[in-house]
Amino acid sequence: MNKQEIPDIIISRLPIYLRALRHIQGEGKLITSSQELGASVGISAAQIRKDLSQFGEFGKQGTGYDITFLIDQLREILKVERVWNVAVVGMGDMGHALARYQGFSDRGFRVAIVFDNDPAKIGGQVGHFVVRDTKEIVTAIRKSGIKVAMLCVPAAAAQEVTNLLMEAGVKAILNYAPISLSVPAGVRVQYLDPSIGLQRMTYYLD
To answer: What's the pTM?
Structure first.
């Protein structure tokens, strides 16, 4: 089965499995089962087995999964066995937090460059980064060969910045702006809007 045939919903669950496996491994365990993994992520054991079977056979009935091996396999499938350099655009509160966040490095990502269009911020320091002008996005990202970006700009500016990122060769955008982006085939956008998550939960409240 090729990438195009595997449903995106399955791909979206693989990082969840990977995170849970790391946690179980941190408890000193060497082997886990689909039942244990399912209990830790709130997904049925049958669904986990079905998801993993899309990519091969990783466990044996009655013995379970070798945790280290399965972690390595999932990292390879998700292409995070290497480190991806990431650009962050927008140095507001969210951009600041992402630029300073230390948890990306052991998950396959490294913030490498940050941008803003505010003259008061350009040239300033955020963590150990010097803030670059958004006018430099195309040349700076092309030079760096960066393929992944996180977008933390106001909704009104999001599409314009996205166009620059695509011109620069970015193929994956994590969008924190509360707006849908227009991108061509071959460019992936993941949306993260906390208000949507909150609204989904409040439906269940009394």
So the answer is: 0.88
